[in-house]
Amino acid sequence: MTLSDRREMPTVYEPAEDSRLLADVAVEEVDGDDSVLEVGVGSGYVAARITEETGARVLGSDINPDACAAAREAGVETVRANLLDPFVDGSFDVVVCNPPYLPTPPEREWDDPLEHALSGGEDGRRVVRPFLRDVGRVLAPGGRAYLLVSTLTDLEAVSELAAAAGLSTRELADESFPFERLVVLEITIDNT
To answer: pTM higher than 0.90 for the full model?
Structure first.
C-alpha cells in the first residue's frame, strides 16, 4: 500500500447500526443537565445526537486526531485522549462508548487506518478491558455508562470484567443481525 493509497482511505469510523443503537439509548437515558463524555467519539454522530436531542453538554474524546477533527466539524467539543486517561475523578454523570469490538486474531490484523476503530483484538475486548477498569473513576456519584458490545465479544466475559472493577451491568437494548447481537449495557458502580 502506497502513502497516497493510505491518504485516500477513510480514517474515521462512519456511523452504522451500532452507532444508531447507542445514540437511541443515550438520548432516552440522558437528562439535559447531565455532563456527558463520549469515549471514542469518531465522527461525532452519537455525541451530536445527545446534544441536539437532550440539551446536555457533551464532550467527545478520541485517540485519532482525524476523528477529533470530524467530531468538531459536527459541532462536538473534543479532546484528543487515550480512553479516560486525562479526565479527573467524578467528572461525568454519563459516559458513552462504542469501542472496537470485532474479535481479530493477530494473524488476521490488517494494515488499514480504520483497524483501530474496528478491531477489538483477539477476544474483542482489547479496548473494553481498560475502559471498564477506569470508567468508575470518572463517574460522578450516581453516574452511569452506556457501553455498546457485541455477542462476538462474549457478554458474560464483559460482565465479569465489569464486576471485577466494582461495576454492575444490565442490558438496556439490543438489535440482532445474522452473525451477532449488538447490546447496549448500562454500567453503574456496584454499591452492594
So the answer is: yes
